Amino acid sequence: MRPALFVTLLFFAAAASAQTFEEEPAVPERLAPVSAQVRQRALPEDFAAVANPAWKDSRPIVAPSTRELLAAVKAGRLDAVKVLLNDGALANGADELGERPLLAAVAGEHAEIARLLIQRGASPDVKGPEGRRPLAMAAAAGHPGLVRVLLQAGADIDARSDNRATALHEAIRFDHPEIVRLLLGADPDPERYDGEGLHPLALAAALGRLSCLLTMLDNQVAPDQPDRNGLTALYWARRYDQALAESLLVEHGASREAWPLILD
Q1: The domain 190-264: what is its CATH number?
Q2: Backbone torsion region of residue 19, taken as left when φ is above 0, otherwise alpha when ψ lies between -120 and 50, otherwise beta
Q3: Domain ranges of the chain
Q4: 11-26 residue pLDDT tens
Q5: Among 50, 141, 169, 262, which residue is least crowded by beta carbons within 10 Å?
Q6: Which residues have a Cβ under 8 Å from the Cβ of 107 and sit 6 or more positions away?
Q7: How far apart are CA 104 and CA 74, in angstroms?
Q8: How far apart are CA 34 and CA 259, in angstroms?
Q9: How far apart (Å, rounded) are the C-alpha atoms in residues 173 and 28?
């Protein structure tokens, strides 16, 4: 074969091979990379890698004035509380744990500070980090001054804390008949149940809180009012061997037919 002809054939063979390579890639079509446009899919807004990276601090930013106000309230420093509020501290502000000035005032039994905070905008029904409300806390502590301040500010008499107890339940549980009397003056719902399904009268009977029980009966709370389970205060007095509570209930008209004869 002539050299010139051989070179010509070799050139055409190389050109054909290059064309074939361009038209038919070596990688199978199913393994070919997808386009960038197909790969870009929208991620949900709450996707952690986008919205909340692991290194991001999610704790709320607490103003220094809020910390100073909380410290002054806990220390019972009324003048310092006034100064901080006048300088712009928020009466209803909270720290990173959810603690608020009014809750701190109630816990420390600082009635005048609580009154001032409410006047400056603190909510009387705010819940703390443990789910308790100011009125329930004051009732449990047996502090009539705080209870009056909160009731005058419009605190919800029937509001439940996270344990499902109202202020009236707490006053009975800790045996504060004076607080029970104050709360009854705000016209609470006598059928409001706690976490165990007991209304206040049933709770007083079960725990043997005789002064609280008598206060409620004297304020015309119905002795045969059934609780969430259909049981009356007399049942609970018998159930827990509270003989004096049983006698008080019977004297005030409780019917022995209103409770089961078989006690489990």
Answers
A1: 1.25.40.20
A2: alpha
A3: 190-264
A4: 555 555 555 444 455 5
A5: 262
A6: 137
A7: 6
A8: 75
A9: 78
